[in-house]
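Q: Convert this sequence to structure tokens.
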Amino acid sequence: TLGCLLSPEDVDTTKLAIRLVDGANQCSGRVEVLHNDVWGTVCDDQWDLREAKVVCRQLGCGTAVSAPRESKYGEGKGQIWLSDVNCKGTEASLAECEAKPWGDNVCNHVEDASVECSGTEIPEPGPIRLVGGPNRCAGRVEVLHEEQWGSVCHDDWDLNDAQVVCKQLGCGDAVLAPIGAKFGRGFDTIWLDDVNCTGVEAALSECPARPWGEHNCYHGEDASAVCSDSGITVSTSVRLVGGPNRCSGRVEVLHNDVWGTVCDDQWDLREAKVVCRQLGCGTALSALPESKYGEGKGQIWLSDVNCKGTEASLAECEAKPWGDNVCNHVEDASVECSEVDVPEGGPVRLVDGPNKCAGRVEVLHENRWGSVCDDHWDMKDAEVVCKQVGCGSPLSALGGARYGRGPDVIWLDDVECNGTEESIFDCQARPWGEHNCYHGEDADVVCTGN
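A:
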């Protein structure tokens, strides 16, 4: 059986360097991976086209043509690092596939695995697009190079860079420059890193950056852009005021360091769902118009808010520009959320995965759901979580927000379980809410149950 998963904590693309050796070009040859600063080969046990697809994708070499076994491109020397590698074929990096622990194998170099990729050779940089967002003016930034779409790493990514993207696409001005794969992780190569635009360039390809394909990133660091023509608002802070508890009341959002209300025009249960989700307050019970929880004062920041109901934050919903409305405070919108009280210590849940036994780890503290940072996250921690949620044993302990970024607080960091604890709350960790993380580092778990 497969003994571990190469989690991003251990081997993201900054640490799991990969290369093809002794082939006709950089896109064919014997597979070698870097571990502890030493290159080593991969045993061909279970090696097939699915693993080859991932290698080709990671190297930006197109699609896999074949997955030769038995040292077709010669026998390597030294370490045989990986064996029984098992990919689905859709992963962005070999780091995301299951395998035996490093160096644990009974192979010899006659069994070295190889790969042959389709490769492409068109040097001209191509167009740009935003994907994974609500419309063509918001999403993950992807650029076309050598006939292949690829993402942009978020190192040094800021509003100046996003401004160039928005201008290039004819989408108005940049509103946000999200980092940490806000609109999902890319599936192919990472083309650009350390992009540094001034904001006046006509195209992203005119901005200083590392050479094409040269980076120290993984897809959890994909850069995004939100342009003004997308209709997405910028507010990321929201609160409920004047209600009986923190999960019901008048909706207020923060803009330019000033709290203001939301007009009830078009306000319904879809918007309420997003507010409740963002606050970690369960599901929406009602979306109340006409200042049910009292009239606010000062600014009315938002009007005609239009959510699908699935967004993680109000920031992802359409709305009129800030302060653009003909409302008064009699029309202030309110929300009532379910906010289920739970036993002392609070539960743990796995969310946004394919079933209840796989997903992002969230814990409840002070009646508020929050995520766990992936620093030091490993199989011992996953062992405790899987047991606590009644899902058997862990298959993998993932980092890098594999199942999406949490919308609210990060409650735990530097969790260190020994695997025998009854609850994650019994494990060593930093104090509640103390961390040095962002939601691109949310921890995930896959358990044997479903």
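Confidence is low (pLDDT under 50) at residues 1-15, 120-126, 340-346.
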